[in-house]
Amino acid sequence: MHTVVLTKGVPDFREGQVSFDEDGHLERGKTPTVMNPNDKHALRAALQTKVRNGGDVTLMSMGPPGYKEVLQEGMRDVYADELYLLSDREMGAADTWATAMTVATGIQKLDDEPALVFAGFKTADGETGHTGPQTCWCLDMPMITHVIALDVDEEAGTVRAKRLVEGDIEEIETVETELPAFVVADPEFEPTYRKASHRLRWKDLREETQERAEAHEDYLTVWDHEDLNLDPDYIGLDGSPTIVAGVDPIPKAPAEREATMIDGVDDPEIEQVFDELDAYAAGD
User: Strand 220-223 to strand 181-185: parallel, antiparallel, or no bridges (unpaired)?
Assistant: First the structure.
C-alpha cells in the first residue's frame, strides 16, 4: 500500500531570527528552519500504517532547496522510501490555497496513486489549518480530521479512525470511509503496535532506513512548476488570494535570569548551591 505524508519546514522561532522582505513576506531562505512540529504526528500515523500494512511511504514538501534537510529528517522518522520536493521561485510566497493546488498536483503526478495521504492539522508559522483540507479538496478524496487512532482494512478497501471532537466536552467518535482517503492527524495521535510481528518489523525498518537517510539525495526528486505543468499565474504569490495586512517581527527573547558560575572545586561554593536548593527539595 502506498501512502504519502505532507510535511513543511517552518521558521525556528526559538532563534528569533525570522526574516521578512519589505512587503512582509517571509524569506524562508534566510530564516533558520525546522520541521513543523504538528507534521510529526502525521509521520507517526504513516509509520504505523507502513509497519502494520506494508507498502511504501512517500514524503513530500513544497519550499526552498533547504527543505531537503527537513525531508531527510522525515525519512528517518517515518522510514520513507521516496522524497519529493516541489521547489522553484514561482512557488514562493504562496498562501494555503496556492500551496494546496501545487501539492495536490505533485501527488497526482506520482506514478503510484496513494491509498492514504497524511497531513498535520496546522503549521507553526500560519496556524490556519487550511492546507491539508484544501489539498484534500483538490484531490477529491474523503477526509477524516483530528485522527487519534486508525486501522486500515486493505481487503475491504476502508480506513476506520477515531477522531477527537471538541465542544462543550471532549468526545471521541469512530468513523469509516473508503480508500483512497485523506487523514489529518491530531496531536493526541499515538501509534500502537499490538503484535510481536509489528514490533519486529518496526525494528527492521528502523535499521534499514538509517542507512537510506544518510544518502537521502539518492531518493530525492525535485520538481519545479514546469515539471508539474503549472501556470505561474495560479501558484506562488500571483496565485494567492490572501492579503497580509501587516507583519510584526518576532524578536529573540532576552535572557532575564542571572546565572552564577560554579567551578565545582571550591567547597564553600558547593555548600552555597546546596543551601539554595534545600528549600525546593523540602517542597517550599
Answer: unpaired
CA distance 112 to 126: 30
Helices 131-139 and 96-109, axial angle in degrees (round to 10): 40
**DSSP structure string for 49-88:** HHHHH--EEEEEEES-GGGHHHHHHHHHHHT-SEEEEE--
Distance, in Å, from the CA atom of 43 to the CA atom of 70, rounded to the nearest integer, reads 12
Spell out the residues 6+ positions from residue 102 whose beta carbon is closer than 8 angstroms to its own: 62, 86, 91, 94, 225, 228, 230, 235
Query: What is the residue-level pLDDT of the chain in tens, covering all 284 positions?
Result: 999 999 988 877 665 566 565 655 555 556 677 888 889 999 999 999 999 999 999 999 999 888 898 999 889 888 899 999 999 999 988 889 999 999 999 999 999 999 999 999 887 676 788 899 999 999 999 999 999 999 999 999 999 999 998 766 678 999 999 999 999 999 999 899 989 999 999 988 888 888 888 889 999 999 999 999 999 999 988 898 887 676 666 555 555 666 677 776 667 777 777 777 777 766 55
CA 41 and chain centroid, separation: 7
CATH architecture of 2-234: 3-Layer(aba) Sandwich (3.40)
| Grid cell digits, residue 234 | 495560479
CA pair distance 53, 151, nearest whole angstrom: 9
SS3 248: coil
Q: How many residues does the chain have?
A: 284
Residue boundaries of the structural domains of the chain: 2-234
pTM beyond 0.70, yes or no: yes
DSSP letter for each residue of 141-198: --EEEEEEEEEEETTTTEEEEEEEEESSSEEEEEEEEESSEEEEE-TT------SHHH
